[in-house]
User: Fold this.
Amino acid sequence: MALRGLFSGSVYRYYQSQKNVFDEVNQSGGLFIFLADINPYSKFERFETKIQTIASMCEILPEDQNLARLKVLVESIDKFNVQESDYYLYAYHLHTTLKELQLKAVMDNFPELAYWLVNINIDFNLMLI
Assistant:
């Protein structure tokens, strides 16, 4: 599916542009929690919550210098802007086109496509067409 390829390419370009930060985080052993904190999908607006594992750990262990450095990196890294990514723009235009066509859910990959679109933006829900 084209969305998967565009998503992968967007993520790869973001990684390349921030490679020095990711290398430093990887050296410290905190890559997994760092990725969880900077993930653009880690904010759940409908539930008014955001994953902030490193900040929470810093409150519990304020003397830990490794965590303090990870917190600084989380706060300073350029954020991935979903709305400016290739896959978001493609999803937007795909949703708009499908909405105009009033397409019936008969294609083999419709459930997967619907899943991707609604997870990119709740407004792209094909079930509401």
About this structure: The chain has a mean pLDDT of 89.
